[in-house]
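Treating backbone geometry as a discrete language has practical consequences that deserve illustration. Part of our work consisted of pairing the sequence of a single chain with a tokenised description of its backbone. We regard such an encoding as a compact summary of how the chain folds. The amino acid sequence and the backbone structure tokens for this protein are reproduced below.
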Amino acid sequence: MGNDHHESSRYGTFARNWKLIGITSKKRWRKNSTQEKILWHVIERISKSEDGAAIIRSACYETGIIDGENLQSSGDGDALGLSTIELMCLLSGIQAELTGTGKKSVLRVMNCPYSNTLGGFCSPDLVCECHLTGMLHAIDRKLRLNRRRKMCVGDPYCEFTIDSD
């Protein structure tokens, strides 16, 4: 058992002093990137599979529900839905402007928060639709997102309103 402590001490010493032997200048590897690389390969295979689009849509929707639950505050459903989306944009460093109140509220988003999501394995439009729908459904399942303008089809900004059944 005493020898085990000595062995781990040797590894600890190496870990603390690895820069001294120049490994970092020759090798590009990070332990935490292994999981990320594996997940990218999984996503790539899923996106090319027969059910890939449905799996990605479902994952984006479920993530939207979680994000909506984490970001929502109190208020009226329609205005709350847009203010929750606005908050997500602002926390992501995306310029967004919420104008009006209640059913007349309009949210304009100046940069796409989904343009780099999933590295081109699916369209930002699909991620946007499913994730934002999930966010709204976390607030109220009757809320429906109305995307009046979309940057992905050439509009200068995205514009959203909320419809409720």
